[in-house]
């Protein structure tokens, strides 16, 4: 299935062709693709994206109106450049396909005119990931995020085949999500560099937790390829290595301060370092229990009806809540 009208000017021909689908790229206001890894897309993702939580009603159904209210807050108050819908923080393993797509539609309608909306379409099922990618593109997503295939744990050749097969089925820019702790597999640097040769694979969310690996990625990735931190606490170290930004959890509650740190780093690294150290207690508290339970509680303290989680996650104990509220001040 081809890209939507809204996104067609940014789409590549299937496979490795690298020119806008219109006969001449300049006819539709885009520039011809030049460098592998360079970002392109219907909307720039910026430096600060938050993996948005999913609010639920007391009966466990998705609270779409609260999701819209939260999306506005994340963009307008917490200064996010973009939102990732249907990431792990959004409890994607317990959402139905219909819920995932409805959330995407709601968030796009709410903030899609002023922020990037990236759709988490990946899973351990390649065919299902392709279908969700196509559906996300049809609805107007500004990018696709693809997580390591968890549980079935393919080798490096399998990872390459999985990601490349999905990427070739969309005209949208793709962010890979290397999350070793949750997927129990690591997207190794040589495999990532091969994948970066595919024109619309333009970024990686690096949550391997390995600074040596991230150093290699930052040093060897093609010009323009974006490395986003997938760990709030490693954002500043990754920036110092050449990283581009962060796909955050803490951006729900301290996004404005994270954005201040990101903006300060190029010209005032001392200020950025100070902000980083000030934020560390918040980061620790937000991961003091299984995520996203702490950040859902923290965001509820900001006035949102979003504390509820779906099983197998459970609510924080009173002692665990005290840790979170204490860190937020």
Structure description:
Strands 1-2-3-4-5-6-7-8 form an eight-stranded parallel β-barrel, surrounded by seven helices. The protein is an alpha/beta fold and 329 residues long. The protein is globular and about 45 Å long. It has a single domain, classed as Aldolase class I (TIM Barrel), CATH 3.20.20. The N terminus is likely disordered. Helix 3 packs parallel to helix 4. Helix content is 40%, strand content 11%.
Oligomer: single chain
**Relative strand content:** 5-15%
Q: Overall mean pLDDT score?
A: 90
Shape: globular
The level of helicity is 40-55%
Number of domains: 1
Strand order of the largest sheet: 1-2-3-4-5-6-7-8
CATH superfamily: Aldolase class I
* Total strands: 8
CATH architecture: Alpha-Beta Barrel
Sheet with the most strands, sense and barrel status? 8 strands, parallel, barrel
Which parts are unreliable, with pLDDT below 50 for 5 consecutive residues or more?
Answer: 1-34
CATH class: Alpha Beta
**How far apart are the termini?**
50 Å
Q: Element order, helices and strands?
A: EHEHEHEHEHHEHEHEHHHH
Computed over alpha carbons, the radius of gyration is 19 Å
**What is the fold-level CATH name, i.e. the topology?**
TIM Barrel
Q: Please give the count of helices.
A: 12
